[in-house]
Design goal:
Length: 119
């Protein structure tokens, strides 16, 4: 059984910072791509940033220069440092991982953590 558990969401004023974390646990052989997605009310889930096991990174244009994704392969953890937050960053943020477990490869999702940017 593999689980992804996020933490670090909350309420922050515009211009502020938050750091999201995601911990993968269970019977894990290897993790390929990890990433963060978000979903705002009434909108579709969208990619925020992804990082491969080798460290290649991609960001959506609207967060470039403000967000930084990182991972610790030894600890199976993923982080998202979010700076200069804007109201339009308000959403539920989901951790995603492409994981080999017990001979099978599948996508896993966390339960989501709310990020609210408001004054």
């Amino acid at each position: 059984q593999v689980q992804l558990v996020e933490s670090g969401g909350g309420l922050v004023q515009p211009g502020g910072s938050l750091r999201l974390s995601c911990a993968a646990s269970g019977s894990i052989s290897s993790i390929n791509i990890m990433g963060w997605y978000r979903q705002a009310p009434g909108k579709q889930r969208e990619l925020v940033a992804i990082i491969t096991s080798g460290g290649s990174i991609n960001y959506r244009d609207s967060v470039k220069g403000r967000f930084t994704i990182s991972r610790d392969n030894a600890k199976n953890t993923l982080h998202l440092q979010m700076n200069s937050l804007k109201p339009e960053d308000t959403a539920v943020y989901y951790c995603y991982a492409d994981i080999w477990s017990m001979g099978y490869r599948r996508n896993y999702w966390g339960q989501g953590t709310q990020v609210t940017v408001s004054s």
